Amino acid sequence: MKSIVITGGAGFIGSHVVRLFVNKYPEYRIINLDKLTYAGNLANLKDIEDRPNYKFVKMDICDFDAFYKLMQDEHVDGIIHLAAESHVDRSIKDPFTFAQTNVMGTLSLLQAAKLYWESLPEKYEGKRFYHISTDEVYGALEMTHPEGIPAPFTTKASADSHPAYGEKFFTEDLKYQPHSPYSAAKASSDHFVRAFHDTYGMPTIVTNCSNNYGPYQFPEKLIPLFINNIRHRKPLPVYGKGENVRDWLYVEDHARAIDLIFHKGQIAETYNIGGFNEWKNIDIIKVVIKTVDRLLGRKEGEDMDLITYVTDRAGHDLRYAIDSRKLQRELGWEPSLQFEEGIERTVRWYLDNEAWMDNVTSGDYQKYYETMYANR
Ligand code: NAD
Ligand code: TYD
Questions:
Q1: Spatial distance between the Cα atoms of 270 and 189, rounded to a whole number of angstroms
Q2: Which atom of ligand 1 is nearest to the CA of 9?
């Protein structure tokens, strides 16, 4: 039986990873380690919280002693590390918290794992430290074709006609050039993870993924924020001219990639994860408005006038675009969903789960832990 810690499992992507592992691997013991910051919400995992192979532990990843003890008590074999401060706008206001959690927290996990695994007779045999990172560490790409050129790659997620906005993509060998405090902190944590492999021989893997979308994303991020605002006919704050390009991947496809890489990925390797699915913000916003309108029985496009151009984000990266061909070539992963299907599913989920959204926007979800877990 494998004992696996998933950090940040109460967050957006982490909850999908926890659900996938708990359902798919009844023989594993899945320990969800989360501090439950504003972004952590145990209601994301209601459907699996009573499973015998699942356990929740409220812990700060910066708490070295507590984590070292957990490694010993649970005989932890694998760590899938997602816990982080994840929102660029917050990092601009409060960079210290990002350095503390993303850098010091990751270092604390690495050091505790190292001491525990090195104390075992088998050492690092069968062990794995898998660090989940972002494409934002690579910096920003140029937009050499503002109107978009036909996508050079065809996957299930990117229709043939879907444009790429330049010839250059993020590949695994690119130099890191982070611009925001968020991406600088993630870059630093990536370097520490690789340093633990190179210095101590720890079996590490790093993946860098593009923007995720789907159910359970905290509504400070573009897509859930805008779905909720359209529903309530509130203004949609578009930064700058809405020309920035992001590369969107459905969250369950990311979780499937994490499962594959955790089990089959090469130690010390980096894999980029993305679906060749580039969108200008303003174009994706229009798709979201039309979809919400249609699903709410409004006239399609009638809420376009909610679009409100506001001051640009400081240091706003122009374009992200992932080249995920290494992952496709070496491990056979490809996204399963067309974007049109993924966005329809996502909008429908937020509209069908109004109680979840109201709970999060009102702050009530933070009481969930107290009532559900405090007395167990
Ligand atoms: P999220 O903000 O939704 O969730 C983060 C989780 O980490 C929350 O449950 C929070 O409570 C927990 N956490 C924060 N600080 C903690 C601490 N000190 N100790 C323990 N737990 C703590 O984030 P997300 O969007 O799910 O992202 C998860 C990971 O994936 C992050 O590492 C992020 O950098 C990376 N990533 C995200 C995206 C994306 O589009 N969301 C894309 C690529 C990579
Ligand atoms: P976000 O979801 O914050 O992800 P990231 O900054 O990690 O890419 O933002 C996605 C894009 O949408 C980004 O270019 C910033 C833009 N954006 C807005 O225009 N308005 C908003 O209110 C938000 C939250 C984001």
A1: 14
A2: 9
